[in-house]
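Thread: Newbie trying to understand structure tokens

Hi all, I'm a second-year student working on a class project, and my supervisor (Dr. K.) asked me to get a predicted structure for one chain before our next meeting. I've only ever worked with sequences, so writing a 3D structure as a token string is new to me. If someone could post the tokens and maybe explain what I'm looking at, I'd be very grateful. Here's the chain:
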Amino acid sequence: MKKIVAVMLTALMSLSLLAGCGSSENKALVVGTNAEFPPFEYVGDDGQPDGFDIALIKEIGKRMGMEVQIENMDFNALVAAVGNKIDIAIAGMTVDEERKQSVDFSDNYYEALQYVIVMKDSEIAAAADLENKTIGCQLGTTGMFTAEEINGADVKSYNKAVDAVNDLMNGRLDAVIIDKNPAQVFAGKFSDKVKALDGADFEFEPEYYAIACPKGSALVADINKALKEIKEDGTFDKLVNQYIE
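---
Reply by user tm_fold:
Sure, no problem. This is what the structure looks like when written as tokens:
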């Protein structure tokens, strides 16, 4: 009887070891995003998240031998969800000191700059012109933090950047502050009504996007390795050409 039990225990331990040592190809990488930030992330014609960030993380997952599962959620909830509801987050997320207290970041993968969207007939053209104005932004983004530092500004935050742009066109806002690429997308979509102004004219500083991972996670090294390969073999540039330029 003891021999039978021992054999069974050995078999169970072997199965456990096989499961634990199995390749990561069978493991899902749950990735949080906010599909309201074109061209980095948006909802495609098939109703699923698409965009540069989505394509990039799927390529990273492929090289890590992991199946990527995308979870679309509010941007402001992403950092808190990392390591809990999701494994990592990619969402045009700027690396800053406050976020670094909660998550570890991968290497930077994109340099960005805040832009200002205004109505075509607006006289706003420089930093001083934004003072004492009503400014829209997306909740939890660099655009919001930038707007909050403007003297006398009345800052209105939105879960979706497009809602801020709509309020601008409806006369409820004087300007919207958002990252360069989505600003250009919105300016192109509503070209008869709004224009996007270069953040350099407002003395905005460049920022850098990276992938948020749990504190102390080995995922950072794995993601960085895959990201380095993607940049070196030209895949990164192909994705930029496909989604951004």
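A couple of things are worth pointing out once you decode it. The chain has a mean pLDDT of 90. The first strand starts at residue 28 and ends at 33. Feel free to ask follow-ups in this thread.
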